[in-house]
Amino acid sequence: LHARYVLQLLYETRRVLKLMPNISHLSTSYSKDITICGDLHGNLDDLLLIFYKNGLPSQQNRYVFNGDYVDRGKNSMEILIILFAFLLIYPNNLYLNRGNHEDYMMNLRYGFTKEVSQKYKV
């Protein structure tokens, strides 16, 4: 995805996240399921497999992602782009929690910063 579109996506995602509460309260009493995922660590194949087996996020198919989206794997940016796009489409049905790998120092140490600079040199 071109850097211009990534920046637009990041800007919109930031705007939406700032409007959301720090703590989300979810219940399964009125809906069928909530799929809870964690520790993708830049492995896009894992995210695609989760969506293949459980369906794409939607109003009827809610997801909680418990952080550690980035670092270690080679597709952290792609994972963030997909998750942020779904968050903008379904802000009340997809929840993104922050893990310890969503930290500046962890990103420097485990590779996300390097991945971003290689993919978006601008």
From TrEMBL:
Residues 97-102 form the Serine/threonine specific protein phosphatases domain. This is Serine/threonine-protein phosphatase. Coiled coil: none annotated. Its EC number is 3.1.3.16. Keywords: Hydrolase, Manganese, Membrane, Metal-binding, Transmembrane, Transmembrane helix. GO terms for molecular function: metal ion binding; protein serine/threonine phosphatase activity. The keyword Transcription does not apply. SMART domains: PP2Ac. The chain crosses the membrane at residues 79-96. Its cofactor is Mn(2+). The keyword Transmembrane applies. It comes from the Eukaryota. Belongs to the PPP phosphatase family. It comes from Furnarius figulus. It catalyses: O-phospho-L-threonyl-[protein] + H2O = L-threonyl-[protein] + phosphate.
